[in-house]
Design a protein that fits this description.
about 350 residues; AttH-like fold; ten-stranded antiparallel sheet; eight-stranded antiparallel β-barrel; 22 strands
C-alpha cells in the first residue's frame, strides 16, 4: 500500500460528502525548563455545521487551563474559529497558532470528568497563546494518504493522516501569569470521516527529547480484531518506521486513569528497538458522547496526560523528554474497555 503526501496536504482539503467528515490539526509543545506547555486542536466538521476547538494548557502546580467550544462554521476553507487560528507559513517547516480567549483554570483537572460541573465551579481568565512551530522538512514527515482504503466502513478515523516532531517558540499567558515557551512537541493533521467511537480503544504516545530524538507510538484496538501497533522514531536525522509497540500501564484511583507507562517500540526494517518509560505529570479526563441510531448514548473517554519520558536502554539511555500519553477508551458498563492493556 502506497502513501501520498504533498505540500498541498499542509492546507485544507476538499470537503467530502460524509456527514461526519472531519479535517483537524493538533499540536503539542512543552518547555523542558519550566515544564509548562499544552496542546491545541481544531477539527472542522463543516457538514455538521460546527468545529471542535480545544485549548489545553498544563501549568505549574498541576493546574490545567482548558477551553472547549463548538463554534459554528459553514465551510472547510480554514482552521479559524472560536478564537484559535492556524497559519501554515511554510509546508513541512513552519506553522503558527494564535489563541485569544478564555480558559477555565482547574486546580484539580480530574473535575473535567463532569464538564458541566467543572465549568460552573472554577474561574475563567483571559488567555493568549502565540507559538511558532518548526519542522525538519519533508524527510521528517510520517504518514500521508494511502492509495487504497485502509479502514472498514463504520470504523473510519482518518482518510489521510500524518505527524511530525517539531520545535516550539512563543508565549502563553493565563490571567496575570505568562511564560516564554522554548521547547519541543509533535503535530498531527488528518482528514476524512471520523467518529470518536470508531476505535475500541487506543494508546497514542508522543515524546520529543530535542536534539534529534523523539518518537510516536500508536496502539489501536478494534472490536473484532487485534488492531494495529506501530509508529515512528526520529533518531539523529533519520526517521525509522516502526511496526510494533508493546505497552504496559499502571493506573491509579477508582477511575483507572493511567499514571505510569513502560514500553518498547521497534522497527523490523531498521532492526532496532527503543525502550522507554513515562510518568504522567498532569492528567485531564475528557469525553465525547454520541447517540446511536437506536437512541442510545455512546460514551468515549479520552484521558490526556502530560508525560515526562525517559529512554531506558541503548545509546540514548537516560535521555529525558516530554510529550503526551493519550488514552482513548469506549466506556462499557461504566468501565474503560482497554484497562487490561
Amino acid at each position: 500500500m502506497g502513501v501520498r503526501l504533498d505540500e498541498s496536504d499542509e492546507y485544507m482539503h476538499e470537503l467530502g460528502p460524509e456527514s461526519n467528515f472531519n479535517e483537524s490539526m493538533y499540536i503539542n509543545c512543552f518547555d523542558p525548563r519550566s515544564e509548562v506547555g499544552g496542546w491545541f486542536r481544531m477539527g472542522n466538521r463543516a457538514n455538521e455545521g460546527y468545529a471542535e476547538m480545544t485549548v489545553c494548557l498544563y501549568l505549574p502546580g498541576g493546574r490545567v487551563g482548558f477551553m472547549f467550544k463548538r463554534p459554528t462554521i459553514d465551510s472547510n476553507d480554514a482552521l479559524d474559529a472560536g478564537g484559535l487560528t492556524w497559519t501554515m507559513v511554510k509546508p513541512f517547516e513552519e506553522l503558527r497558532i494564535d489563541y485569544t480567549g478564555k480558559v477555565v483554570v482547574l486546580d484539580d483537572p480530574s473535575q473535567m470528568s463532569d464538564p458541566k460541573t467543572a465549568f460552573a465551579n472554577n474561574p475563567f481568565v483571559e488567555c493568549e497563546a502565540r507559538i511558532t512551530f518548526g519542522g525538519k522538512g519533508r524527510a521528517s514527515m510520517f504518514g500521508g494518504e494511502p492509495d487504497q482504503p485502509h479502514e472498514k466502513p463504520g470504523e473510519e478515523f482518518a482518510k489521510g493522516h500524518y505527524e511530525q516532531l517539531v520545535s516550539a517558540r512563543g508565549s502563553i499567558r493565563v490571567g496575570e501569569e505568562e511564560w516564554q515557551i522554548e521547547g519541543f512537541g509533535l503535530r498531527d493533521h488528518s482528514w476524512g470521516p471520523r467518529y470518536w467511537q470508531a476505535p475500541f480503544y487506543y494508546r497514542w504516545l508522543t515524546a520529543n527529547f530535542g536534539d534529534g530524538l523523539g518518537f510516536m507510538a500508536s496502539r489501536v484496538a478494534r472490536r473484532d480484531s487485534d488492531g494495529s501497533r506501530g509508529g515512528f522514531v526520529w533518531d539523529d536525522g533519520q526517521i525509522h518506521l516502526c511496526d510494533d509497540v508493546r505497552i504496559s500501564t499502571v493506573t491509579e484511583g477508582e477511575d483507572n486513569y493511567h499514571d505510569k507507562v513502560t514500553g518498547v517500540i521497534s522497527s523490523s526494517r531498521s532492526g532496532r528497538e527503543w525502550h522507554f518509560e513515562g510518568q504522567v505529570l498532569s492528567l485531564i479526563p475528557l469525553r465525547n458522547r454520541r447517540q446511536d441510531p437506536d437512541g442510545n448514548w455512546l460514551m468515549t473517554r479520552i484521558s490526556e496526560g502530560m508525560t515526562r519520558w525517559r529512554i531506558t536502554s541503548g545509546e540514548h539511555q537516560g535521555r529525558v523528554g516530554y510529550g503526551m500519553s493519550e488514552y482513548l477508551d469506549q466506556i462499557v458498563d461504566g468501565q474503560p474497555v482497554g484497562i487490561a492493556e
